[in-house]
Amino acid sequence: MKLLDTSESKFDRWSKKISIGAFFIFIAAMPFSISLNQSTLAIVYLVLAVRMIRFRKWLPGRTPLDWALLFYAIAEILALIFSIEFPVALANSKRLLLIPIIYSTICIATDEDAVKKMVLTFLSVMTVYALWGVFKYFYMSVIHDASGLSHRLTLQQMYMTVGGLFMISTIYLLTALIFSREFKWRLIFAIAFCFNFLALLVTYTRSSWLGFFSAAALIVIHKSKKAALAFLAALVIAFLFILPDSITDRFTSIFDPKHPNNVQRTIMWKTAFEIYKDYPITGIGDIDAGKIYRKYVVEKNAEIAGHFHSNLVHIAVTLGTLGLLAFLWLFIKIFQSELIIFRKVPNDNLWLKIAAFGSLAAFVGFFVNGLFEWNFGDAEVATVLWFTIGISLATAKILWAEKQVKGAQEVG
Predict the structure, then answer these.
(1) Rounded to an integer, what distance in angstroms lies between the CA atom of residue 317 and that of residue 279?
(2) In this predicted structure, what is the pLDDT of residue 242?
(3) What is the pLDDT of residue 144?
(4) Rounded to an integer, what distance in angstroms lies between the CA atom of residue 311 and that of residue 385?
(5) Which range, of 4-13, 43-52, 328-337, 348-357, averages the lowest pLDDT?
(6) What's the pLDDT score for residue 146?
C-alpha cells in the first residue's frame, strides 16, 4: 500500500506505517469504542498532515465532492454564527471533523489489495459485533425471559445506533455475497450476512430496516429481475411464517398512521415547520432542539426529543434553507459520484466492484434510514458513512492510476 511513489527516508517509511496501522485500528474500533476510534483517527489526521507538509502536496487529490463539502461546511459555520445557542452549536460543529475521513481513506487505500483489506476488516469486526449481539439477545431471551421490542438489542450504543451500524454492514455483506464468484467467499459472506441481519432485526429499528430493504432491492434488481422476485418472495415467507410476531408487528406498524411512534413523528415534523418559518435562512444552529421544541409544540401528549427523527427536517430547522440546500447538493453529488464510479469499475476488479457497489448501496440505505431518523447526527453511524464514501472515491483514484500505468506501458 503506497501513499506516495518516491524514494523515502526512514521518517517517511515509519510515518506511512503509523498512518496505515492507526487507520486499520480506526476501522476495527468502529463498533466497539468511539474513544479509540476517534483517537486513532486523530493520529491518522496528524501523520497525513505532516506528510503533506513534508511533500508539499495534497495527497488525496481532487474529488467530485470537494465543492459540495465546502458549501456544507460554510452552511454549518453560518448557522453557528447566527445560532440561538452559540456555545452548544460550537461544540456540535465538531461533526465537521469527521469529513476528512473521506480524504484519509483515499490516502491509505492506494490499491485494490488495500481496499480489500479495509472492507474485510470492517465486515469482520461487524460480524464479531453481531455475534456478540445475537448471543446477548438470545441469552436474555432464554435465561431471563426478556425479548421483543421492550428488550431490543443495545450494545456499546443505543438500539438506533446499533441498527444503523448493522444496516450498513448487512448491505455490504449482501453486495459481497452477490458479486463473489468463489464458493468459499460466498459461504463466508452468507454466514456473516445471517448473523448481521439477525442482529439488525432484533434492534427493532424500523428506519434501519427500511434502509436495508431499500438498498437490498437495489442490489438484487441490479443482479436480475428473477433475483428480485425471489428476494421479495423470501421476505413475504419470512414475515408470514418464520419471524416472530414481535418483529412482524413492528414492521407492519410502519404503515399504520395511528401508531404512537408515527403520531409523534407527525407532531415533530409539523412543529419543526413552525420553527423553520421563524428561522428560515440559517436555522437555530446545530443544537439540541429539545428546548425550542417545548416552546413551539402545541399537542399536550408530545414527546420531547432533541432532534426531529429525520435528516431533512432536522437540517432545515438547525441549518436553515442554506443548510438544507447544501445538504441536498452534497447527497446528490455523493449518489451521482458513487454511481458513476461503480459503472466504471471493470468486472475483473472484483474487490473494487464490491467496494464501489457496496458503498453506493450503503449510501442509499443511509439516505432512506435518514428520512425517518437523525442518523447524520449519530457520530458512530456518520463515521462509517464517510468511510464508505472514502472507499468509493479511493476506488476511482485507483482505477485512474491503473489507467495511467496501462497507457504508459502501451506507449512504451
Answers:
(1) 7
(2) 82
(3) 64
(4) 14
(5) 4-13
(6) 62
Which pLDDT score, from 0 to 100, does residue 234 have?
Answer: 82
CA distance 98 to 364: 20
Sign, Cα dihedral of 368, 374, 379, 380 = negative
Q: What is the DSSP string of 285-327?
A: -SS--HHHHHHH---TTPPP-SS-S-HHHHHHHHHHHHHHHHH
- 101-158 residue pLDDT tens: 999 999 999 999 999 999 999 999 999 999 999 999 888 777 666 667 778 889 989 9
Q: State the cell numbers at 256.
A: 399504520
| Residue for grid cell 456540535 | 92
Q: What one-character-per-residue DSSP string does 238-272 give?
A: IIIIIS-HHHHHHHHGGG-TTSHHHHHHHHHHHHH
Q: What is the pLDDT of residue 4?
A: 45
pLDDT over 90 percentage in the chain: 76
Q: Which residues of 194-212 are buried (b: 16+ CB within 10 A; e: fewer)?
A: ebbbbbbbbbbbbbbbbbb
Tell me the longest C-alpha to C-alpha distance in the chain: 77
Instruction: Report CA torsion sign: 57, 58, 62, 66.
Output: negative
Average pLDDT, stretch 94-100? 96
Q: Which among 163, 169, 180 has a CA at the least distance from the CA of 216?
A: 169
b/e per residue 249-280 (b: at least 16 CB within 10 A) = ebbeeeeeeeeeebbbbebbbebbeebbeebe
Query: Which pTM value belongs to this model?
Result: 0.93
Pull the grid cell for residue 245: 410476531
- Compute CA distances 402 → 106, 218, 299, 323, 406, whole Å: 15, 28, 60, 38, 6
Residue 145: predicted pLDDT: 63
How far are the Cα atoms of 62, 126, 312, 322, 329 from residue 74, in angstroms, in the given order?
A: 19, 34, 18, 9, 13
Phi/psi of residue 23, nearest 5 degrees: -70, -40
Numbers of helices and strands, H then E, in the chain: 16, 0
Q: Where are the beta strands (DSSP E) in 112-191?
A: none
Mean pLDDT of all residues in 39-64: 94
332, 343 Cβ separation under 8 angstroms: no
Cell 441536498, residue located: 328
State which amino acid sits at residue 403. Answer: K
Q: Nearest to residue 216, comparing CAs of 206, 225, 207, 228?
A: 228
Place of cell 486523530: 42
